[in-house]
Design brief:
This protein has 137 residues and is an alpha/beta fold. The protein is built from 6 helices and 5 strands, in the order αββαααβαβαβ. Strands 2-1-3-4-5 form a 5-stranded mixed sheet, sandwiched between helices.
Amino acid sequence: MSITDLVAQRSTCTRRYVGAIMVRDKRIITTGYNGAPSGISHCLDVGCLREQQGIPSGERHELCRGLHAEQNAIIQAALHGSSIAGSTLYCTNLPCSICTKMLINVKISEVYYREGYADSLAAALLAESGIPLIRLG
């Protein structure tokens, strides 16, 4: 998790710093942090759209300039041709329900996280899919 914390420091989100790493056979396959897509202005530079519109955490995920750390980790794996099937996700936060659906489809084997997130559907989806969800102290 300490490596995940280090990755989170690259975040360009003004609300929370989230880092994600995917590991298989004790090897880091991919990393991701939350922030705007390549070539798009970062919230650190132009302000937070969600703050400006008063959108609470865990709601209306589509109204954000940034991608979630888990999404960026999945995208980086695809971009570089690395399979993440069967890997373990370590994330500073519980994935949201959108990221959870992606993680289920890429066949993540288990999810470790430290902090909760205001999205109860995510844990329910992981439970239904049989993917272990483990909260670390």
